[in-house]
Amino acid sequence: MLELRGVRAGYGRTRVLEDVTIEVPDGGAVAIMGHNGAGKTTLLRVAVGLIPVMRGQVLLDGEDITRLRPNKRVRRGVGYVPQGQVCFPQMTTLENLQLVTTERSAIDEVLGTFPALVDLLPRRAGLLSGGQRQQLSIARTLLTRPRLLILDEPTEGIQPNVVAEIEAVIASLTQRGDLSVLLVEQHVGFALRSTDSYYVIESGRITSSGAGGAGALEAVRAAMAV
């Protein structure tokens, strides 16, 4: 589904990623883990097209999209949920969803995934809790009907009960088989439970990778302790 090959990227003359290669299989879920400042968010922004590549390639379904603009990547099925529970605070929950589509059946379908939002539809998004805003952010992205869902720190600053709900949603989405997931996450246990494989990134380089699941917990912790 998605492949980064030998990617170098950064901001201006500052290099953040160096020779990064990762693969997200069709219908699979992959976690990117590492400490703050390791390059995780930069990697996602490269995948979405928000940061240009200095060297290397970004491929989607085997096609080189390295120079493709972000809006065209969205049209090809790339959905991005950035860090920070992004919403339009002065608009209602429903209006936030209607920015993507006014088709009621599509909105009802995504509300079936996030039933907690149903009673919040008339409420201004800025008055929602952090967890509710995160659910809204993911729901709004799902309305674009992505084939690849990219999530940046979806559990950051969110109460534990909502974290469990988001984990369950990610699991249900990946089990459908028609959606790939690329997840950046600080909570190692959550990340490994939610994905099939992982990469650890440190100082802009991939230092470890392997299959996901509970059995990988100690390996990931050891890789991140280096």
Short description:
With 226 residues, the protein is of the alpha/beta class. The protein has a single domain, classed as Rossmann fold, CATH 3.40.50.
Overview of this structure, please?
This protein has helices spanning 40-48, 70-75, 93-98, 104-113, 130-142, 160-175, 188-194, 217-225; strands at 2-11, 14-24, 29-33, 53-60, 63-64, 78-81, 148-152, 180-184, 197-202, 205-211. The chain is an alpha/beta fold and 226 residues long. The strands form 2 sheets. The chain has a 6-stranded mixed β-sheet with strand order 6-7-8-3-9-10, with helices on both faces. A 4-stranded antiparallel β-sheet has the order 2-1-4-5, covered by helices on one side. The two termini are 31 Å apart. The mean pLDDT is 92.
Q: For the residues shown, what is the average pLDDT?
A: 92
Element-level helix/strand string:
EEEHEEHEHHHEHEHEEH
Structural class: alpha/beta
State Rg: 17 Å
CATH topology: Rossmann fold
Number of helices: 8
CATH homologous superfamily designation = P-loop containing nucleotide triphosphate hydrolases
CATH class categorisation: Alpha Beta
- Give the N-to-C terminal Cα separation: 31 Å
Major sheet, described briefly? 6 strands, mixed
User: How much of the polypeptide forms β-strand, as a percent range?
Assistant: 25-35%
Number of domains: 1
Q: Which architecture does the CATH hierarchy give at level 2?
A: 3-Layer(aba) Sandwich
The largest beta-sheet arranges its strands as 6-7-8-3-9-10
Shape: globular
* Helical content (DSSP H or I, runs of 4+): 25-40%
> Can you count the beta strands?
10
| Unreliable sequence segments | none
